[in-house]
Amino acid sequence: MQMSLPCVKQPDVITCKAAVAWEAGKPLVIEEVNVNPPQAMEIRIKVVCTSLCRSDITAWESQAIFPRIFGHEATGFGLEVIRELFFRIVESVGQGVTEFTEGDHVLTVFIGECGKCRQCTSGKSNICEVLGLERRGVMHCDQRTRFSINGEPIYHYCAVSSFSEYTVVHSGCAVKISSVVPLEKVCLLSCGVAAGLGAAWNVADISNGSSVVIFGLGTVGLSVAQGAKLRGASQIIAKAFGITAFINPHDSKDPIQQVIKNLTDGGADYSFECIGDTGMVTTALQACCDGWGLTVTLGVPKVKPEVTAHYGIFLTGRTLKGSLFGGWKPKSDLPSLVDMYTKKEIQVDEYITHNLPFEDVNKAFNLMREGKCLRCVIHMAK
């Protein structure tokens, strides 16, 4: 007997506006793009607000995958969810997306959490083997894009691509948040602010009364400073957000690491490289104290990705650690960070220096390139 399968209505292709980068370093172009329906375990999102991150600038200036839609710090409404259904003569029904429904408010994240792989279950890492950092401009599950113009693919960035009125992300790369949280603020927790706080708390585990030096005072560096202050660091060398001292390297004839050693009685307990300059990593290591000095590197380099340092630095007991998204497991940890924001236990609003409409996205890029903004929030809806 032939068995009929239930009819499942599929979402339609959406046509919307997106800021497309056609080549490296050239202004983005607002284009009409097609956004395909979400596939199994994915959700399609109406983007409300997205903020510009320095790593978007770095990739736009230096990477070779084009045409592309950048953006990864975003909030929005989950519009459509497709559930994965397998029928083998009614042998089994495989579950798909169950945690999101239409209208949910979400944060997008550039790394996901499957909850099942070795990394996710280890309790030691946030580097998911299934939904890790996506570098090829496609979706995790099928290595294809969800964007197109006239049938030609438009590539993704970090499997998010929030510089589009609608986007598709894997459900493991989205975090449900309260509908009362201001979307135009908490989009910063998708990357920069969370990355800095997590580097201070999760990666370095800064102790009370310690000395901290921060190289680079963008959103990430200032968030490290905020995290250090909340952990009770007694000396934070940088500027603003609880920082106790600021050093301009041009004001001293001595190497900056020597100036820091003089200020900290032999070297800082912790140093953070937040610039994306691998040469500065060595300086940060040299600015730490012998025995237990810890350097954390967070910046994304444009050129020369290799790090070099004299082995003697490590023989003296100093440590170098990397940090991706501050060690946060996005689905497990970000809700508590959002909760801290709602209770005013952490600062987020203070990083927003500009608010711009979507059509001014290139102005946001120029402001960041010129060093005239910390975070610019781009409002997708008029």
TrEMBL record:
A single Gene Ontology CC term: cytosol
Molecular function, one GO term: alcohol dehydrogenase (NAD+) activity
Domain named Alcohol dehydrogenase-like N-terminal: residues: 41-177
Catalytic activity reported: a primary alcohol + NAD(+) = an aldehyde + NADH + H(+); a secondary alcohol + NAD(+) = a ketone + NADH + H(+)
EC main group: oxidoreductase
Names of the cofactor(s): Zn(2+)
Gene: LOC110745784
Ranges where the Alcohol dehydrogenase-like C-terminal domain occurs: 220-340
EC number assigned by the record: 1.1.1.1
Subunit structure: Homodimer.
Highest taxon listed in the record's lineage: Eukaryota
Keyword NAD: yes
Residues spanning the signal sequence: none
Source taxonomy: Eukaryota, Viridiplantae, Streptophyta, Embryophyta, Tracheophyta
Family: Belongs to the zinc-containing alcohol dehydrogenase family. Class-III subfamily.
Keywords annotated in UniProt: Metal-binding, NAD, Oxidoreductase, Zinc
Keyword match Metal-binding: yes
A GO BP annotation: formaldehyde catabolic process
The name this protein goes by in its record: alcohol dehydrogenase
